[in-house]
Amino acid sequence: MGHNSRTARTVAYIASKELAQVSALLPSNRKRSMIIHSLASSLGLLSNAPNTSGEIRVVKPTPASYQDLAVYHSRDYLDFVLDPKNSQGLEVAEAAEYGLEDDCPPFSGLPHYIRYIAGASLTAVRELREGRSRIAVCWDGGRHHAQKSKAAGFCYVADCVLAILSLRILVPDPDSPAKMKKPRVMYLDLDVHFSDGVCAAFQSSGNSTFLHLSVHHAAPGFFPVSPLSTLPTATSDPFLLSLPLHRGASNATFYRVWLNVVEKVREAFQPDYVVLQCGVDGLAGDPTGAWNWGLGGEGGMGWCVGKALEWNVPTLLLGGGGYDSANAARAYAYLTSIAAR
Ligand SMILES: [Zn+2]
């Protein structure tokens, strides 16, 4: 897919002052983005260190256009959320219809937020598709609960879905250049919450070139409640996989899950691209409190991300949940260092 050894190790890190400022407006994660990027920067991860084999390039995001967003979102939803009049703190009757209530309140700057977050993930995708980078990191993305016409679970824009759709644009088949093929995309979600928004986008699409695997916590009443978040059965769509884990999942749990499930699914599917949603709300210390997963060590989140990068498939690393900003910044700095290794 247009990759060569010269670009084999390059890592694109999507960041800009505007992105951090706009992303930091998210009510569930106020200021988090600024802390994440400033920690990565102050640790020297964003400059080319002479001892690392990789090269990190900071790439500024281009905000998404209306057309970019309309590839998935409905026009009704976009017309509502992109109109600044609807996010100025006044009661607007249709807000609830679009999910803009409870955990997704409208907030000042919402139109910019939506354009920047989608634009950041799409900028990362372009780095991969055009072969400039083997790994693209977009910690501001990963909003996996947003629906086509509705905000949900702190997610106002379905950047994961937009990124996947953009990676699946037809390209010349390397095995027979006269033909076009749809790249095979594997979406793996490590956030403690089930990726219901992404799953819904591809439900009953009958495709076999996209695979969804969500490893998450599920329990009665735990968000999001969905019949798709359970273990697959004989009649489930084999391309929309879920692996619910009990409370307290740890490095030992993930070590087994990785070797017995994730690796096997990847081997069977043989993706051309991997999209890895790295929500850090399953780590020990997160206020969500469902799992006891570690960042370092065998079976830790860093180990899992490192294993995924060993597949040597162009990979998009997205963020996600994580509700202690200092812990989240530490986690994302560590995962950035693994991407650069
Ligand atoms: Zn989450």
Automatic annotation (TrEMBL):
It is an enzyme of class 3 (hydrolase). Pfam families: Hist_deacetyl. It comes from the Eukaryota. Its main location: nucleus. The keyword Nucleus applies. Keywords: Chromatin regulator, Hydrolase, Nucleus, Repressor, Transcription, Transcription regulation. InterPro entries: HDACs, His_deacetylse_dom, His_deacetylse_dom_sf, Ureohydrolase_dom_sf. This is histone deacetylase. Residues 29-337 form the Histone deacetylase domain. It is found in: Nucleus. Gene3D superfamilies: Histone deacetylase domain. Belongs to the histone deacetylase family. HD type 1 subfamily. Its EC number is 3.5.1.98. GO terms for biological process: heterochromatin formation. GO terms for cellular component: nucleus. GO terms for molecular function: histone deacetylase activity, hydrolytic mechanism.
